[in-house]
Amino acid sequence: MKKEEHTISIKMKKQIFPSLIATSQKEFDKRYKKVSKLSKTLHLDVMDKKFVKTSSLDFELELPKHNYKVHLMVKNPKEWIQENYTFAKTIVFHLEAVKNPRQIIKLIKSKKRKVGIAINPRTPISKLTPYIKDLDQVTIMTVFPGQYGAKFQKSTLKKIKDLRFKYPKLNIEVDGSMSDKTISETSEAGANLFTSGGYLQKSKDSKKAYKKLEKLI
Q1: Which DSSP letter does residue 72 get?
Q2: Contacting residues for 191 by C-beta, under 8 A, at least 6 apart
Q3: For the chain, what are the domain ranges?
Q4: 180 a catalytic residue
Q5: Which one of 29, 134, 175, 180 is the catalytic residue?
Q6: Are residues 64 and 36 in contact, defined by beta-carbon separation less than 8 angstroms?
Q7: Which of 45, 134, 136, 205 is catalytic?
Q8: pLDDT > 90: what percent of the chain?
Q9: 175 part of the active site
Q10: Which of 32, 81, 114, 117 could form a disulfide with 136 if both were Cys (CB 3.0 to 4.6 A apart)?
């Protein structure tokens, strides 16, 4: 007998966050200008060239006033949080980067910030189980992280479905290669938060591209 695939219908608020990576203030300002009016919340990718092979926002950054969600792709999120938490509304760190996730969750909460955990494509969702009740969101990386334009990993769709089935009210974010070719699949799988970087930055009309993504979710 063929095993039936579980499905679940959700009615959660869906949001798309433009993401920003940059190696200099000049580059950041240019990219910020392109997407700043698209969403009340922008997603910042911080990379230290240790956890991933590239660097982003790893300098004395001057930020315009905005709501920011920060995704830490760094080896030592504790240090970054202690020094930079003030401008972030939500801080997402990688499960793979720390030995004691609960300690980082506690630190972020002590700063009165929302907290999320991100997992890479090869990390099983079972690793999240001990921490789910303390999280505001989970981020499923749909690419191997570190750069704009990485290849979408279709295998992550099952992880999204399984996570949504287990936790119907959880905020599930997908991050990586979110475009008009991939976003609908992740929405159908159960994601309700979507982060898009390269697709919006490379579009001639970012507003038009953003609205297209909104229609697809």
Answers
A1: E
A2: 140, 160, 164, 172, 173, 174
A3: 15-216
A4: no
A5: 175
A6: yes
A7: 45
A8: 92
A9: yes
A10: 114
